[in-house]
Amino acid sequence: MHTPTEQERETEFQARIDRGEMIEPKDWMPERYRKQLIRMMSQHAHSEVVGMLPEGNWITRAPSLRRKAVLLAKVQDEGGHGLYIYCGTETLDVSREQMIDDLLSGKAKYSSIFNYPTQTWADIGAIGWLVDGAAIVNQTALAKCSYGPYSRAMVRICKEENFHHKQGYEILATLMKGTPEQRAMAQDSMNRWWWPSLMMFGPSDKDSPNSGELMRWKVKRHSNDDLRQRFIDRTVPQAENIGLKVPDADLKFNPETKHYNHGEIDWAEFYNVIKGNGICNRERLKARREAHQQGAWVREAAEAFAAKHKENMIAA
Ligand code: 3HC
Question: Ligand 1 pocket, 214 CB below 6 A?
Fold first, then answer.
């Protein structure tokens, strides 16, 4: 019986990807594929959990019981998305503890967008509409990725993101029908969240070290720039529909390409934020470290219960 060489295995793996087959946890996969997925999925899960912080900040300040209930539901959803994606990542033989340690030590990244402060209630609208809107574009593509657990997690998560997106847009639409102060608050929020939302899609394709192999392995189905453009094309008409101005003097619809030409992203700001020098990076990590520390007793109790339960199982 011929034992396939590493090269033969990789060739067969790529052939499976090219045929559009789904890779499952127990399938053979190149170590690099596994490592890339752990990186991408764990950072996605970190983003979901850290993303609860800026919005959680406004649960006690929501302007009505209805807004509070909707925001509570959204923040709970984000926590669930994080746990869902952590579970999906654990199928790649990495422990939850390792992933959490990587986040808390600063080794792992989470989305740059969550290092910006939520200064007004309109920011909760901007996050739902722009940030979750960008996440929908990105995650809809990921729902077709080649790794089974990730793809299936995205299908479930995108359904909830649509609720997040709609509630955010409704907050801003309501403010834009309000007083001049409310309209000014909504426009100020648009001005502060537009460009950081474009940065969520990652560096431009020419500066993306991971995209090449992620595209070859059909983890990424579209490039960073393509998804960014898709987001811009669908979001600009929504802004115009409620009277918000996109803060980009170079934004112009190109009738030939049917896309919006847009201004240059401030990549210095992007790299500065992902290096840890954003407005809220330290605050976010401090909050996560404190929460982890305060939650230690829950983990210890669960482990003690599991150990006791295992003992009883063995004794029975
Ligand atoms: N924030 C932080 N780091 C970023 C980033 C961002 N917006 N964009 C890129 N990076 C990092 C990458 O992680 C990579 O660093 P690493 O190699 O140390 O991990 C480096 O910049 C180079 O970027 P690449 O384009 O080469 O990296 P990727 O190919 O991984 O593409 C990505 C980046 C588009 C974010 C991709 O990882 C991805 O699609 N991830 C899954 C989706 C995700 O994580 N979304 C985050 C938001 S979650 C969210 O919005 C929740 C919603 O409910 C609100």
Answer: yes
CB of 36 within 6 A of ligand 1: the answer is no
Q: Whole-angstrom Cα distance, residue 253 to residue 195?
A: 18
Residue pLDDT, tens place only, 271-301: 999 999 999 999 999 999 999 999 999 999 9
Indicate the pTM of the whole model: 0.96
Does residue 84 contact residue 156 with C-beta atoms inside 8 Å? yes
Cα gap 132→168, rounded to integer Å: 9
State pLDDT tens for residues 4-15: 898 999 999 999
Q: Where are the alpha helices (DSSP H) in the chain?
A: 6-18, 31-50, 52-56, 65-90, 96-104, 121-126, 132-142, 148-176, 180-199, 211-216, 224-242, 267-272, 281-294, 296-315
Residue minimizing CA distance to atom 32 of ligand 1? 202
Question: How many A from CA of 140 to the centre of ligand 1?
Answer: 15
Q: Tell me: the pLDDT tens digits for 104-156?
A: 999 999 999 999 999 999 999 999 999 999 999 999 999 999 999 999 999 99
Task: Indicate the burial class of 256 (C-beta count within 10 angstroms; 0-12, 13-18, 19 or more).
Answer: exposed
